[in-house]
Amino acid sequence: MSITSEDFKRLDIRVARLVAVESIPGMKKIMKAKVDLGDRTVHAIVGGAEYYTAEDLQDKLVAVVANMEPRTVAGVKSECMLLAADDHGKPVWLTLPAGVSPGTKIR
Question: Which pTM value belongs to this model?
């Protein structure tokens, strides 16, 4: 399925910092994170808990879609979506080098 450049422009893709990452009791595949988007802080569900610890992701700069419709997963309101490559089912988070400010637009 193709999208237009106008469709792509609707996505608010930004650099975000994972400022607090923690496990969710009873969940083996997901964690929760507090995410700094530059102009605000939101919460997100982070997959891949079977591969990564909270410490692995703490303070990482990642790419997110910041204008996702919020949804609740495992009792946690998720307000953005982290972008990852899917390497045979394992998420590989799209990270950015130190020095890029949270909130920086990705185009």
Answer: 0.93
